[in-house]
Amino acid sequence: MSRFVRPVDDAITQQWGANPDYYKQFGQNGHTGIDFKSAIGTPIRATGDGRVVFAGSGSIHGGFLSIAGNAMLIDHGDIYSAYSHLSKYEVGTGTTVKQGQIIGYTGNTGEVTGPHLHFEFWGKPTDWKNGWSGRVNPNDYLSQEGEEMKPTEQDVANIVGEVWGIPANANNIRDYTELDWKDFIYRLLGNSTPWMDRKNYFTNIESQNKSLLKQLDAALKKVPADTSDAEKLVQAMKDAMGIK
């Protein structure tokens, strides 16, 4: 399984290295990232754990330039991920983010022909003269379409937060349920405990809101055991709980 996840689930419209003749005028060997065909307002996930080192107009960052529009750069320790043409930021410079966390929303800012997400990885240190303006091939790091992936911690936070109507982050959910967060994730994803064997686990929890936990438990039992896709799991749980 790859270390980094795709920032959106949409179709790819332009791959790394495409259109070399066009990009030659910019001193590049080809397209320096991956373009995803995303409608304006599509949530963007952090591809991995890291810290936001830039969130702002590309026109004030020498690595992005004005063509990027609203942009974001995340430091993952040994590599950077970059996101361009955003319509809105969910986090700002200096924020520590978790893989799968919503960091912003797609748009059509900067120089574009239509709404999309331009996604890149930058080397660290960045070799600006590598023929790709410091970028490296995302396909060497990124999960590929069709690769089986389990929801990240933040995906599950989003699931539970949406179902329960509370802000979707690990601390809020931990405080809300008085559960050990990692153990809750472990069980919620069904890595060791079968879906139908959770009754005793939830029954024995000391919580300020046992009725809500029972509602969640009942909903989980109605979710197909092989459900792993985060969005499908959200919808299945909402259907089970009668939430529109």
Provide a descriptive summary of the structure in words:
The chain is of the alpha+beta class. The chain contains 7 helices and 10 strands. The chain folds into 2 domains: 129 residues, Glucose Permease (Domain IIA); 89 residues, no CATH class. Strands 1, 2, 3, 4, 5, 6, 7, 8, 9 and 10 form a 10-stranded antiparallel sheet that branches. The longest helix has 13 residues. The two termini are 34 Å apart.
What would a concise description of this structure say?
This protein is an alpha+beta fold and 244 residues long. Helices cover 25% and strands 20% of the residues. Strand 5 and strand 6 form a beta hairpin.
Quick one: CATH superfamily of the largest domain?
Glucose Permease (Domain IIA)
Give a short account of the largest sheet. Answer: 10 strands, antiparallel
Overall mean confidence score, pLDDT: 75
For the record, the CATH architecture of the largest domain stands as Distorted Sandwich
Low-confidence spans: pLDDT under 50, at least 5 residues? 146-151, 172-209
Provide the CATH top-level class of the largest domain.
Answer: Mainly Beta
Form type: globular
**N-to-C span:** 34 Å
Domain tally:
2
CATH topology of the largest domain: Glucose Permease (Domain IIA)
Q: Tell me the fraction of residues in β-strands, as a range.
A: 15-25%
Strand segment tally: 10
Order of helices and strands: EHEEEEEEEEEHHHHHH
Percent of residues in helices: 25-40%
Radius of gyration: 20 Å
Helix/strand-derived category reads alpha+beta
Number of helices: 7
